[in-house]
Amino acid sequence: QVQLVESGGGSVQAGDSLRLSCVVSGNTFSTYAMGWFRRAPGKEREFVATISRGFSITRYTDSVQGRFTISRDNAKNTVYLQMNSLKSEDTGVYYCAAVFRSSLRSAGPQEADSYRYWGQGTQVTVSS
Predict the structure, then answer these.
(1) DSSP secondary-structure letter at 119?
(2) pLDDT tens for residues 16-62?
(3) Phi, psi of 50 (to 5 degrees)
(4) Which end of the chain is more exposed for a tag (fewer CB within 10 A), N or C?
(5) Residues with Cβ within 8 Å of residue 9, at least 6 apart in sequence
(6) Strands (DSSP E) along 1-128, which ranges?
(7) Angstrom distance (rounded) from CA 48 to CA 38
(8) Are the C-beta atoms of 123 and 9 separated by less than 8 Å?
(9) If DSSP codes are grouped into helix, strand and coil, which group holds residue 18?
């Protein structure tokens, strides 16, 4: 059973930075494209960013482009989300997710239902 464990959330002021981490159990991490999603209070879960298995091909939702950076370390079974210039609208529970991809260059989809494995989430609260 693959398990994903997020960490790094917290309460910060607008303009601050946070780095989220997600560790994936087992020895199949390198076969997954990884994604970050978030759920703001009263809203549906939304796509934030995704990264391919290899070659660091990334995609971002427009609202975080230029402020957030997704990366991965296959040797550590870990995917990161560096969040800079945080805004109050970034508040929510952040989830990492994994989906198998045969191609090293394929980033993950933006549709949450396409991901097979999910973490439990980590809370990010940004005060203005």
Answers:
(1) B
(2) 999 999 999 999 999 999 999 999 999 999 999 999 999 899 999 99
(3) -145, 155
(4) N
(5) 18, 20, 94, 122, 123, 124
(6) 4-7, 10-13, 18-24, 32-39, 45-51, 58-60, 68-73, 78-83, 92-100, 117-118, 122-127
(7) 7
(8) yes
(9) strand
